[in-house]
Amino acid sequence: MNKITIGLPKALLYYKYGDLWMTFFEELDCDVIISPNTNRKILEDGIKLSMDESCMAMKVYMGHIYYLIDKCDYILVPRLKCIKKHEKLCTNFSALYDLVNNVFDKNLIHYNIDVEKKEDEFYAFTTMGLSLGFPYRKIVSAYKIAKEREKMLKQRRIDKQKTILATSSKIKILLAGHPYNIYDEYIGKPVEKVLENNNIEIIYSDLYDDKYLEKEVVKISSQNYWTYNKEIMAAIIHYQDIVDGIILITSFPCGPDSLSNEMILRKVKIPITNLVIDETNSDTGILTRIESFIDILEERRKTK
Amino acid sequence: MKEERIISFPHLGDYYIPIKFLLNKITKLKVMESPPITKKTIDLGSKYSPDFVCIPFKYNLGNFIETLEKGANILIQAGGGCRYGYYSEVQEQILKDLGYHFEFYTLVDKDKITPKSLYHTFKKIDKKIPLWKMIYYLPLTILMIRYMDNIDDFIRKNIGFEVEKNSFSNLKKEMLDSYTKCKGFLSLTKRYFHYKKAFKNLKVEKPENCLKVGIIGELYTSMEPFSSYFLEKELASMNIEIKRFTNVSYLLYQKRLQRRKNLRYIEKYCKYTIGADGMDNIYRAKYLIDEGYDGIIHIKPFGCTPEIGAIPIIQKVCQDGKMPIIYFSFDSQTSETGIKTRLEAFYDMLTIKKG
Questions:
Q1: Which of A72, A230, B39, B295 could form a disulfide with A5, with the two C-beta atoms 3.0–4.6 Å apart?
Q2: CA-CA-CA-CA torsion for B198, B201, B202, B206, nearest 10 degrees?
């Protein structure tokens, strides 16, 4: 039997579940193609293919799909409605599958999570594996291995961050935002580069042990129901006593962020700045804002 | 002396009438609707709102500030849906930071609204509300909303062709006044049929093949005429028959009942629901094409995420059905002239197409 090639666009949820998906398909002996880091061409293709009002991260995503379109048999476009009971995700994630399906003419894999309708992650993986024609037992074992590996990789990164937090004496800034914004080459990376050049230790909000999530999130908001935004809020509360400042990264015009950022800005008491990034952004603008922010933090440290 | 408690709520089209009716009947508190929406409301609202939040947030916040200035001290927000559900906490925080003192209640709890949860919320507002009043007046209010929506549907079909100017809107005003005075199911139903007949007797000159346009899109801009710069009035002045789907009775119960049927109707385009009204609007676009309408107008606030997800699919549905469609995106900075110009161009195109 010929090997199936699966395309994974390196945008949006890849930054959350990438390891899980990769390991799963490798265990099933599929070839996996991951699109490269976002570059100018991908971004421009994405802008052409999407509505001008959709958020920057979505535009980038469409560009990645366009890159993969003739390079693989299937593309994994997840549809996530709800991954925790009584919580929701941004509606972009529930629209993603149908949106891509209507814009492109391509085989997509069904991957649907809606916990309130009893379709959890395990269900999504089994239906996905079965639709590709793999035997059930193989899928289950591949899922288990993938899940363990994902857990291990995440724990390793969290531990690494913990040692940095404990040992480093440099100024520490928490980069808070959705992982698909922070790690994207055109959204969060320019900010990261500036911080690195200025000899700042960067702490990431997604590297956070969510054991105490519910307890910590209520310090900012008790009614928020977006799972990913709750994670950001909890991470900010968790790290706010250890870091010197917080930079909130948002892609324009993110729906959930527009409201939950407002709550964060009003409740957090340490220096915090909100960078809203869209495709017409200039690096100089970011540079000026971050440098003045760093100046504030340095002065603040001296007076302490 | 204890301060008098005054209860207030933001505007949504004409629906302040049934809400006020319900609150008046079941509580003994003083009920005051927010001052009517003006340019000042939206200016106030945008001044204190986050940058790129959607426009209903700004209108609601403006309403709240104006009504707090007038002395209200209990505020009610609906909640539910996409971003709407999180409005209340942020608005409460913003208003508290501005220095106002008030109580704040949200009707929809965790995306679900049931008579029971509603009763519990009202119980928190006023401990003395008896259960029988809720059991009697809640269905009465829902029936009133339903009757209002039915009449509105009729008005939208005919208002563009009225012979005597303002005859429809005057009669509607009279009807709404009379609704507030009704005492029970019987008197409400009597009034409804009386005015239904009266509306049918109003003179209209409707040509056989008039232009028919459907309005789809996000719920707040559909239902609050000020936020869409009186789009429906504009259309009526062009002698167009209007069909609009979104109204409160749709949101309250029809939506839930129709979900599965609608999804099957558009299974060629959609496998899943999109969130908020996204899937419904795709269904409506397909429905309008199949019913032989001449054009579709899609309206939404700037940055409305569910609609942005749905628009590319709606676009494809309209391309397949060769249906003209125009998109309006409203913000606090939208210019009215710009909307008029685009609307006129759309109208010209439709008339030429119709021949």
A1: A72
A2: 140
Instruction: State pLDDT tens for residues B304-327.
Output: 888 888 999 999 999 999 999 999
- Could you list the beta-strand ranges (E) of chain A: 5-8, 31-34, 74-76, 79-82, 108-109, 112-114, 172-176, 201-204, 245-251, 272-277
3-class DSSP state for residue A16?
A: helix
Q: Could you report the per-residue pLDDT of B260-288, keeping only the tens digit for each?
A: 888 888 888 888 888 778 889 999 999 99
d(CA A230, CA A222): 10
Phi, psi (rounded to 5 degrees) for B75: -115, 145
Rounded to a whole number of angstroms, the CA Rg of chain B reads 21
Exposure of B292 by Cβ count < 10 A (0-12 exposed, 13-18 middle, 19+ buried)?
Answer: exposed
Q: What is the ipTM of this complex?
A: 0.89
Residues shown for chain A: 304
d(CA A22, CA A10): 11
Residue A33 DSSP SS3 = strand
Size of interface A-B (CB pairs under 8 A): 120
Q: How far is CA B304 from CA A90, B55, B242, in A?
A: 11, 9, 23
Distance CA B188, CA B323 (A): 41
SS3 B24: helix
Query: Chain A residues with CB inside 8 Å of B275's CB?
Result: 81, 88, 91, 94-95
Pairwise CA distance, residues B157 & A133, whole Å: 53
Q: Rounded to a whole number, what is the largest CA-CA distance in chain B?
A: 72
Of A94, A224, A260, the CB nearest to B273: A94
Interface test with B, best of A55, A262, A263 (most B CBs within 10 A): A262
Determine the 3-state secondary structure of A107 from DSSP: coil
The answer to whether residues A239 and A205 touch, using CB atoms and an 8 Å cutoff, is yes
**What are B's interface residues with A at a Cβ cutoff of 8 A?**
50-54, 57, 82-83, 85-90, 93-94, 97, 106, 110-111, 269-276, 278, 302-306, 308-313, 316, 329
